[in-house]
Amino acid sequence: MADHTKTEQPVHRNEALHRKIAIKEERKYHNVSFIMMILLTLIAFYAIWSDKVSSSFAILFILVLAVIQVFFQLYIWMHLSHKGHDFPLWGMISGILIAAITVAGIAGLIWTS
Amino acid sequence: MSTLASHSKKSGLMDWLTTVDHKKIGILYLVAGGLFFIIGGIEAMFMRIQLFKPENDFVSADMFNQLLTMHGTTMIFFAAMPLIFAFMNAVVPLQIGARDVAFPFVNALGFWLFFFGGVMLNASWLLGGAPDAGWTGYAPLSTTSLGSGVDFYVLGLQISGAGTLIGGINFLVTIINMRAPGMSFMRMPLFTWTSFVTSGLILFAFPPLTIGLFMLMFERVFDANFFNPDNGGNILIWEHIFWIFGHPEVYILILPSFGAISEVVSTFSKKRLFGYSAMVFATVLIGFLGFMVWVHHMFTAGLGPIANSIFAVATMAIAVPTGVKIFNWLFTMWGGKIVFSTAMLWAVGFIPTFVMGGVTGVMLAIPSADYQFHDSYFVVAHFHYVIVGGVVLGLFAGLYYWYPRMFNRVLNETLGKIHFWTFFIGFHLTFFPQHFLGLMGMPRRVFTYLSGQDLDDLNLISTVGALLMAVGTIVLFINVIISTSKKYAPSEDPWNGRTLEWAIPFPTPEYNFAQTPLVRGLDPFWLEKMAGNKKMTPAEPVGDIHMPNGSILPLFMSIGLFVAAFGAIYKSILVGVIGLAITFLCMFLRSVIDDHGYHIHKKEVEEDMKEGRS
Amino acid sequence: METNQRLTDDHFPENPEKATLDGKNKFLGFWLFLGGETVLFATLFAVYIGLRDNHMDGPSAKELFQLPTVFLATMLLLTSSLTSVYAVLALKQNKVKSMIGWFLVTLLLGLGFLGLEVYEFIEYVHEGHTFTKSAFSSSFYTLVGFHGGHVLFGCLWLVTLLLRNWNRGITLTNAPKYYLFALYWHFVDVVWVFIFTVVYLMGKVG
């Protein structure tokens, strides 16, 4: 069972070309998202370093930047947007949801009384 | 085409130690879980004997603390969990028409980790005293507890928790990727569905426990300050983390029991399950809500009215999907041709018992009332009604139902009914009076009480009930021993089953299905029988079947962690390093030695089919 | 078809990591594991956020953290995430040498990150920020240390993987393993994004 493979047929030349183009495209996406992530990191560090942004706004701001950066990681670098990632996506969404509840619950409720 | 690695049949003990076959691992889980069930039961009996009269001195207060801690921890983690995994292993791959689970090696590793975790915990009895901080291990009780009992608790749970986590992932992948053609999600039997949701809960609930146990260990071994208010810590953190894990944990336990009950009720009413899609939806919803209610264990911790109200409402909301399930079971029986076999008796007994546990659950979900009930015997009565009256009754129903599939024997029905009635009556005798003991003010986890407070009679009744439950359990073991006689070999399809696990002969061939079956609807085997077919329609021609090789590595990986845990408890770096070295060496061997398994040849399969063995 | 045979360009599947059932299972199982890891780190973050202001008589986050070191560490890890993506792209084109090369760069960057972290921890201990000092220090070292442990494990994993498959090309057996490692490495970087944001940057703001 485990050795059923789809490699019996040789790869068609046309398909090989298609793949090459797709990979080239993908490389471009990866490079762009790398530059974006560097930029996001720089902005986050600058916002804190420069001391020019009020601290309550800065915290919200850098958290949003972090979320955007993670979105790049998950969707572009880890390919969550690709076909055949339905269950991984479900797994991650559930995990993130429960993670959010956990953080809100523990961090929010221990000093209230 | 084929990679026929030489494979020699191992015999006896070696076969059990190296097996990666889900059917055998299921039996291992059942036997080990049964063993820990007895140990936990004996601990419970000691407590009930201590409490049968006021100011008894059968055990000391200190010993009583150890007994109640070990009873709870053992029953939850080392009896109920493995028994659930036993049925998941024995049944789920068969129900979805698969030849094995997705990761057979990991499956074996999961079992051995659980087993050595359990041995670790129980070793504390012989090594200076068991943990005594309750199964919940609240700080600062657990952080300041003297001796090394709590260290055994932490490391035993850590090791077995890792096993449970990988087991959960394994079943998720198995159910998603390994279903037979035609077995869509909405055609999966309810037991498979509940196993699926339970595995998802395991995946997300066990990581917080892992972290909580690490923190507790750091606190005890390295003087960390998470729970130490003197250095800025906060004891509530432990309670939150424990219950973020702990509440989903009780749904992890109950859902597979719901699944087993669904199968049994449907089979013995000769009707398809009423409201199948509502049942699936209710299962998923219970799983989801399970993560939103943990604060109801902490109403009296003083989190304030807003937090308490939100979690109270969320808790009560769970009664809705659970109620849906109860009604669907009743409607499945309604108008059915009910056969009151032993399995069905357990299922029918389960329904009112679990409803009672649910009702007291809603009572406890009212924060203002909870201030009265909290830490009293009312709570003890409540959770025994849902865990014994729910989980255990469901597991017994599953045991009588699937025993033929697992052991190629049926259990004696007369003895089974004696078991049911003694256990069932004993259960209500034990725990029903505890509701009133709690309302009368008897606190839980206290080793004795004074006379003249009207607590004497009810406690005596409770102890008599516990004895009756013990008698019932002994009857079960007699039944198991008797079943080994040849007389009890099952006929093909002993219950006139509806799902795929009954479509194969006894004993189950090692490869489960000679040809992967084609599934044409819900209750696939029943559909084929109604269409006049004796067997499932195959979805593939007969061919070579790939099988995984057995391996001794899972056992040694677990032994390595077991040894390392002793190093951590006795602060011996050498022992710790040796243990971890064993584990990492095994992991290294596993990754460098290619193991592609072997093939059972087409000819062998054809021969089996001709002789009716598959 | 042998699954541990070196794949040739003519027979190269589009997604070699998911070409076998075994590969598909590993792929899904590992993603689900990462979902669980998300909750694991969330618990650590929650504890840290709850306790980070309680530094008692030790140094506070604002006094302690050195942003230049953190920035450098961030750049190392972020770049290593990119190089592991390049390795996966090479994997999908059956370019073995290029793949091994990019993975080696990833390894070096990972080790550089670990070196910086060790240096940073030593500095902090000198400034009185020991593990047992306060609730803040305990939760800081546990959270950041857990992440560092993940980086270390990743490095060991990668070394084993590369050594074992050095001369074997890309096969249907090792392709999923390489792919899983890359996923793991990205995830470790995801966690770091939140660590530098929540621990270091928010620590500076107070």
Automatic annotation (TrEMBL), chain A:
Membrane topology qualifier:
Multi-pass membrane protein
Can you tell me where the transmembrane regions are?
Answer: 29-49, 55-77, 89-111
Q: Kindly list the biological process annotations in GO that this record carries.
A: aerobic electron transport chain; electron transport coupled proton transport
**What GO MF terms are annotated?**
cytochrome bo3 ubiquinol oxidase activity; proton transmembrane transporter activity
What GO CC annotations are associated with the protein? cytochrome o ubiquinol oxidase complex; plasma membrane
Q: Which keywords does UniProt give here? A: Cell membrane, Membrane, Transmembrane, Transmembrane helix
Which compartments does it reside in? Answer: Cell membrane
Can you tell which superkingdom this protein's organism belongs to?
A: Bacteria
Q: Name one Pfam family in it.
A: COX4_pro
Similarity comment: family membership = Belongs to the cytochrome c oxidase bacterial subunit 4 family.
Q: What is this protein called?
A: Cytochrome c oxidase subunit IV
- UniProt organism field: Fictibacillus macauensis ZFHKF-1
Automatic annotation (TrEMBL), chain B:
Q: Carries keyword Oxidoreductase?
A: no
Q: Which reaction does it catalyse?
A: 4 Fe(II)-[cytochrome c] + O2 + 8 H(+)(in) = 4 Fe(III)-[cytochrome c] + 2 H2O + 4 H(+)(out)
- Entry keyword Translocase: yes
Alphabetical list of InterPro entries matching this protein: Cyt_c_oxase-like_su1_dom (IPR023616), Cyt_c_oxase-like_su1_sf (IPR036927), Cyt_C_Oxase_1 (IPR000883), Cyt_c_Oxase_su1_BS (IPR023615), Cyt_c_oxidase_su1_bac (IPR014241)
What EC number(s) are associated with this protein in UniProt? 7.1.1.9
Cross-referenced CDD domains, in alphabetical order? Ubiquinol_Oxidase_I (cd01662)
- The protein's name is Cytochrome c oxidase subunit 1
Organism, as annotated: Fictibacillus macauensis ZFHKF-1
TrEMBL record, chain C:
Q: Which UniProt key words apply to this protein?
A: Cell membrane, Membrane, Transmembrane, Transmembrane helix
UniProt keyword Lyase, yes or no: no
Q: How does it sit in the membrane?
A: Multi-pass membrane protein
Q: Where is the protein localized?
A: Cell membrane
Q: Which Pfam families match?
A: COX3
Molecular-function GO term, any one: cytochrome-c oxidase activity
Which spans are transmembrane here? 28-49, 69-89, 101-119, 139-163, 183-203
Which family does the similarity line name? Belongs to the cytochrome c oxidase subunit 3 family.
Write down what this protein is called: Cytochrome c oxidase subunit III
Q: Which organism is it from?
A: Fictibacillus macauensis ZFHKF-1
